[in-house]
User: What shape does this take?
Amino acid sequence: MVSKLEYNQIFKPAMETIFGKTLICRSLEIASQYARNEHMDCITLDGDQVSRRGALTGGYYDKRKSRLDSQRQVWYWQAKLAEEETNAGKIKGDMEEVDSELSKLVSAVQKLETKQIQLRETYERQKMDVQNLSVEKKQLEKHLDTKTRLKLALDGDLTALRGTVASLQQELGTELLSQLTETEQEEVKKLNKEIASLQSQIRDSLERRSKLEVCKRIRSAIFRHLFCFRANVN
Assistant: This one.
């Protein structure tokens, strides 16, 4: 083996003393045979040593496979496992918080959807009410126009009757009635009754007109309120 080593020649005696009787062999079997027959220390290419005294020692020693390094690896992976477990716990807590927030959001969305449905139903009902009120309003306006025309006609009749009454009262003031025949006096009485009846009808018409005007104002207020509410809902 000395012939295969490179060293300073001043160390030759020491190198021959240490490696002078060491033989390099191809395999452990050959090394065992030479150590037993030639009484030489042998070493294989894999690093296995065979002593001439019969002792065998292992070959290449991998420091990576030492117990201390293995313990360090165990400690490292234990710490890594504890860290990952801690992270997993945090992630689990975060997921629980997210689930809780998600449940709250789902509940809020369901409440909003329910409220939206209720508002839509309310809107549809009010829309139908507005349509019905619009039809009723048109009918009332139509009746009001008829009543208005009737009132104008009655006002004209009333004016004419008042003129007639004034004329008749003037004639009565001149004691014309005493100069009339019984037939004419009966006619005057009949006219007076008709005048009283017409005046009563006029008063009834005026009262109905007042009531219709009140109803009209109420309907207009209701329609304004409903239109405003509909605009706010939209």
About this structure: Confidence is low (pLDDT under 50) at residues 60-65. The two ends are 103 Å apart (CA to CA). DSSP finds four helices and four strands in the chain. Residues 134 and 189 are 49 Å apart (CA to CA).
